[in-house]
Write a structure and sequence with these properties.
This protein is α/β, with parallel strands linked by helices and about 350 residues long. The protein contains 10 helices and 16 strands. The strands form 2 sheets. An 11-stranded mixed beta sheet has the order 1-8-2-3-7-4-6-5-9-10-11, with helices on both faces. Strands 14-13-15-12-16 form a 5-stranded parallel beta sheet, with helices on both faces. Helix 1 crosses helix 5 and helix 9 runs parallel beside helix 10. The structure holds threonylcarbamoyladenylate and magnesium ion.
Amino acid sequence: MKILETKLLADCAADLMEAARLLQNGQVVGIPTETVYGLAADACNEQAVRQIFAAKGRPADNPLIIHIAQLRQLQMITKDVPKLAWALAERFWPGPLTMVLPKRSTVPDVTSGGLDTVGVRMPAHPVAQALILLSGSALAAPSANRSGYPSPTSAEHVMRDMQGKIAAVLDGGICDVGVESTVIAFDDSGTVRILRPGYVTEQMLLEVAPHVILDPAILHQVGQGQTVRSPGMKYQHYSPRAHVTLVKGSCEAFAAYFLNHAEAGAYALVYDDADTIPGVPCLTYGTNGQEQARQIFSKLRALDDLGVEQVYVRAPDPDGIGLAVYNRLIRAAGFEVIQV
Ligand code: TXA
Ligand code: MG
């Protein structure tokens, strides 16, 4: 079905009801979550889920995350949930943690990208929770960007990427976390494997799980034909139109590198005003992991709005939530990282 105009809905009772009705009718709606905006549809309606893939231009083998509002919904879509998963749910849900678990046949193969597992999370954003309850369904939702582009952290970002492709976008304000959820799988009953870093860090998971390991694909490029635990790791990601080069080092070393190597018209993306380089067009993205997570995608998008062709980004500290920001940036940079 061709949609001509995407409605922008507000965070009020009438518009929430309208969004829920659209979802019940098998339509796709852009929704706020605490991490990034999602492109939501009834997770068990194959036709609706196909429209998500079409709107994003997403490869069919890249599975979607299912969003729930109550633990009983977890039992409807998954089976053999390990004890450790229940303990992690107790500690981190609602919140930015996605757990990959064996799926039930209630979840169509389109939703899980043909896998026998499914990623599930309970979002903390009140608008997302209300919509799941009002629509009466668990909602499949990938990030609401065009495939490959930086994730959206405002309703305006979603409108830009999805105008004319989906029924509506529900505006729930700017996303608090700013990077996508931490995705984990269970290697055995006591070992959690982080497939994608996010707000919930290795350190936080260790408060509940005896062993936590980082999947090597978090920091390293996946080779041709190599098997991956999470299909999303294979694809190019988070890239603005501007060419991104990630530069690791002190503020002074970054400035010196930029002045010696940058071509005319290049921008620098630095931490804060104290780091700006005289005579060089600069944007900032914050001084700590939380600020950097909140701002990174909107700053990458802002560079595109400015028509920038080349940007040098001062690499974040890859500690705590900074690892999530670093992981997104090395992908945006096509793994082009320079140590100065
Ligand atoms: O914060 C988030 O997680 C956001 C919001 C909207 O909830 N969603 C999101 O979805 O980032 P998406 O589709 O952009 O990223 C989901 C990631 C992909 O890398 C995908 O490959 C992985 O999770 N994933 C999903 N299901 C999986 C499964 N069954 N096994 C392994 N990886 C899975
Ligand atoms: Mg995504």
